[in-house]
Amino acid sequence: MMLDVALRTVRTRWVSFAGAFVALALGVGVITSIGLVMAAASAASDGLGVQRFATAPAVVQSPSSVPVHTVKGVSRQFAARPPALDAELISRVAATGAVVADRTFPAQLAGAASGQVGHPWSVAQFAPYRLAAGRAPAGPADVVVPAGSGALGNRVSVLTRQGRADYTVVGLAEPAGFESALFFSDDQAATLSPKVDALVALGPVDAVRQAVAGDADVLTGPDRQRADPATVANGFRSVLTLLGVTGGIAAFVSIFVVSSTFAFVVAQLRRETALLRLLGATPAQVQRTVLAEAGIVGAVSGAVGCVLGVVGAPLLTWWLRDQQLVPSSFSAGPSVLPLVLAPAAGLAVALVGVAAASWRAGRLRPVEALREADVEATPMTRGRWVSGLFLVVTAVAVLGWVAVVQPKIATIPLLYLGVLLLPVAAFALLSPVLTPPLVRLVMLPMRWSSGAGPTLVRANAVAAVRRTAATAAPVLLTVGLATAMLGAVSTIDAAAMCEARQRVLAEQIVVPANTTQLNQEVLARVRATGAVVVAPAAMSGYTANARGDIHHFHLAAVDPIALARAESVPVTAGSLSALDDGGIVVSTDWNLTVGAHATVELDTGDTLSLRVVGVMQAGIRGPDAYLSAAHAADFPIAAAYIAPGTADTAALNQAVAGLGARVESRAVWIEGTASTAFRASWLGLLAALGISLVYSLIAIANTMVMAAAGRYRELAVLRLTGATARQALAAVAGETALVVVVGVVLAALATVVDLAGLSVALSRLTTDVVITVPWPTVATVAGVSFAVAMAAAVLTAAAGARSRAAMPE
């Protein structure tokens, strides 16, 4: 019987359920779209198959992890740059049969787009590389280039780690989708890159494994994919991370909006609940009826949301392709798991969102239910109090932990977004108790107004606290998320640039141009101009503290004397000049003092045992430690800093011409590194914020429509007391404006908490932290929220006024 009552209630009171239906359908649609694209990206990453070694029986390469020794034992960590295979191991494997050495190194046609690599031609036979024309390279001046990159017999300039050299195009290779490669003779490849990265073993696999004896990985079958270039796979993994964060934020917004909307629906149906209790329905029956209503709406809206998700997935895919985050051939088709899980999640959200309201409705006695139908005596339930206070405590604890213990987390916007959501959610849950004092505060300037309008608006907002809080919640989410997210990223960006201006003394910086790193010829020519050059070789490594915790740090190998002239390193203890081949200058994040011993496991597999000669203030960007230039080896160099007054810009430009490098001014370089460093974060922010804002704006419209539709009887009474239609609509407009202002104020309070925590965290990393908020964008978001809310409320009220005979013309 309760199911029949629920069906009839939904059918006859569909206007009340329309907002919840739309909110839930959109939420399921958003999650379905993201789920479909994530499923496609995951399948694309897993389905790349073996690429460069597709026909190789076995591939031997160094382990892709390095052992880190701690007090808890040995822990293996990811190695970004696996070490070279040593000659002794190569000899053992060669004894089992023929071997082919593989080398991968930077090699780029001058003027071509960045990202090309070099290989010896002998390994091309194991991949889908085939000659489209010409022959294989045989001499030291021969090169095979991708088809379309040159013509047979042409002389081309190639940029390698050593510098620029001219080669003759002797062959054109059919392009492969996973990389753009130049091929050299085996001897020339060994000259350009002595390091053997992998070995194709043609002997019996069992014999190869026995010869390796665990000193390296022997990859066969699908495992050979681990030896392939990781560019495409890493791209898909980055997309999965970005979509995961976006989906998490979208799910948070969806759950909150849907839960708030359903609670509002149940509150609007209090009179029906009261009648059920008077007719003899038990509390359990009332609860089951309310849950059944939510289940019906959830099931139908889930099905509609699936359709919306299937339509929206191509749009999201198009955006990813437009941002060059996925290959142009990537597409997202139907996938069973997202199409099953998203509607199920939507139904679960509907049931969970209405659970507290259903329990509260069922616990009322008949007389209390009738009274509750007209008067809101307790706008905050016990569960909402507990949840709200729990979120307050959690938000304070997490913000404090980040600020005091892990301030570096605040410099990673995609990771810090989760922290930003906590105060917004806490203020949204506590909005019913915060709304009355805020309403009185906002209406204080109108206290001495002689008109009845302001008094009526204030009285309605305070008397119907639950309605006011429910309609203010989407505004709070919309403006709060926009202000907190945009303000956080802008503040981090501004703090990072401020730090760079303080630390970088160099007025000219040499950076790669269409290449991935600076070559040695660039550095030699720049030094030949008389410039004092600081060229940090970037590396990373792992350390373990006394408790056995492992930390991953970024290091730079430099000349300390030149470094002191080009950068202002904030050394707090020890001395930068004391940095020698056995020393290290660490940041405060290492928790070490001068004279302490530091063991660093580089991600190349090398172990460094060093003594701390200096401690510097941890920063937002830049290395976490400095080593002597003796450790530079062949690590990439991303920039060369020129000490002030040691070189002329014109001479520098002439020195680097044609070598895949350019000279930038200090100001241009700082701006450029800021945009590059935060590109992924900005894209993730835009995706998450865009989806959340669109969803929240629609939720604002839905909630306002529901609220206005539920006030037809109230407006009729107002008209019968003598108010004109214009005055009645003005009251609705005034109350709507008040609700929006309350939502904006709550959003501002949440943002203050967010940015205060962020400011404390950043102040531990750099000085002169200035909170930066893009006010024009925030004002636009607030203005759009106001316009959407006003249009939805007034138009709905006007339509109801025209359709009600009780409202005389």
SS elements, strand count: 24
Overall shape: it is elongated
How far apart the termini lie comes to 43 Å
The profile of the biggest β sheet is: 7 strands, mixed
Helix content bin: 40-55%
**Number of helices, counting only DSSP H or I runs of 4 residues or more:** 23
Structure description:
The protein is 54% helix and 16% strand. The protein has 809 residues and is α+β, with helices and mostly antiparallel strands. The protein folds into four domains: 1-48 and 228-375, no CATH class; 58-227, no CATH class; 387-502 and 676-809, no CATH class; 503-675, no CATH class. The strands form five sheets. Strands 5, 6, 7, 8, 9, 10 and 11 form a seven-stranded mixed β-sheet that branches. Strands 16-17-22-19-21-20 form a six-stranded mixed beta barrel. A four-stranded antiparallel β-sheet has the order 4-12-1-13, covered by helices on one side. The longest helix has 40 residues, at 283-322. The protein is elongated and about 100 Å long. The two termini are 43 Å apart. Mean pLDDT is 80; it is low at 803-809.
